[in-house]
Amino acid sequence: MKRTFAELIAKLNDIPMKKVAVACAQDQAALEAIKTAKERGIADAILVGDREKIKIAADPLGIDLDDFEILDISDDYEAALKAVELVHNRAADMYMKGHIDTRGFLKSVLDRDIGLRTGSPLSHVCVFEIEGIDQLLFLTDVAFIPYPSLEEKVSIIRNTLVITGACGIINPKVAPLAAVEVVNPKMPPTMDAAELTRMYREGEITGCIIDGPLSLDLAINREAAAMKGATDRDIQGDADVLLFPNIDAGNLVYKTLVNTAKVHNGNILTGTNAPVILTSRSDDCESKVNSIALGAVVADAMRQ
Asked: Has this prediction a pTM greater than 0.90?
């Protein structure tokens, strides 16, 4: 059965509306997504930032700011600290980046007193609905950890299982990707993939199925898996999670998909104790709204 973003958004009909705290909300792209999310009943928002600048950004979009709670803080980093504190104290359910540099935003996420740190490394998950593929695909990490060690890959998997679980994917299939599907000592990603598979089979990693190394075609294309005779693999074109060997491979696949394929996608930062919405500047409004919807689904699962 085809899984879709529409199904994820439909989950929100059965739970209380979530609220997102936006750091430095004087950002037109973020405001457009917030407006759309509220109109669709996906989430409400608290806008934290310079009130006058928020008004200037909102006016061309026809946003009535009376519909939103606004906390007027002119300093960008102070606004970020206040927004993340709202989530830390559960006055909001998720945290979203507005008009603030990524470094300052992440610094607020990791604040020792009012941030959202858990002790786990942060990583990034992109959820894709792709025409021609029945399952939702969870891509990780394409934006945060540049060249993850084996230990960091274990953390990335565990972070991702929080997201797959919230989306209703039970015992997801995780494919540690490489250029080839056989172990080659001269290709470190294949060695890591084999070790992750061993850890799964010996019970060191639970809650999922891991089979690697796998080339991308074997991970997502059932016909390719059959043609290559991969009938003894635990994953035969039906992977749920694509674990990339590094940020180069992941980011290239991500941008290829959003620029050439018919997709719906949303992104979320993981390893935190509440969802953090960190999207690319080039992401369109729909993907930002999908990211808010994904955050709301994850927030509800984490609260429970």
From this structure: yes
